[in-house]
Amino acid sequence: MKLKIFILALLVSSCKQPSGNTGDNQPIKIISSDKNSLAADSNTQPNKSHQTSQVAADTLSQKAFWSSVVVPIVNKDDKLILTTIQSSVTGNWAYMIGLKKESDNTTTNTADFANNYNKLFTPNFIKILSTQTYRDINISKFEGTTYYSFEVSRNDTKGKLVGSVSFNYKKVNNKYLLTDVFDAGGNFYDDKH
Questions:
Q1: DSSP calls for 171-189
Q2: pLDDT for the residue 184
Q3: What distance, in Å, lies between the first and last C-alpha atoms of the chain?
Q4: Residues 6 or more apart from 62 whose CB is under 8 A from it?
Q5: Exposed site from 42, 50, 87, 176, fewest CB < 10 Å?
Q6: What secondary structure does DSSP assign to 59-97, as a single string?
Q7: Is the pTM of this model over 0.85?
């Protein structure tokens, strides 16, 4: 129960992050052998003091997570993506992509997620994720475990939020493991907009 409350608090805090450039944040370029390599640009900064459980921005940790988890997603590196899936992935991700009829928090095994994760990483998702940087990664600690999360949001042509999806990972033995995927304000994958 504590973990569910913590994850909810993490999602809320990630939605309230201010944006703006202080002049000291330079966008980074991720260099890859893939011709579709990621050139990330963003002016968002993590909220350093929103909650006691949120960790102050640690650029090295953010960059390490970014290159280990986000870059493989953008480059569609299936082998590396699959190494980040833990034994079960919770959340309502199966509902978001149409595998389940109800929007409940379900726990799915690795095989279910591995067989369907590509439905989460759509071309539109990748395009939007490619505009973000390591500074968009939230880091927090709970009961001695470090958690990392990022959110991807989609707007309609008028700028109104259609939906967001939040990916949450934990670091175990120097490895990032996907723990859950939730919608964070509407269904990102709802193509009716």
A1: EETTEEEEEEEEESSSBTT
A2: 82
A3: 35
A4: 46, 134, 135, 137, 139
A5: 87
A6: HHHHHHHIIIIIHHHHTT-HHHHHTTEEEEEEESHHHHT
A7: no
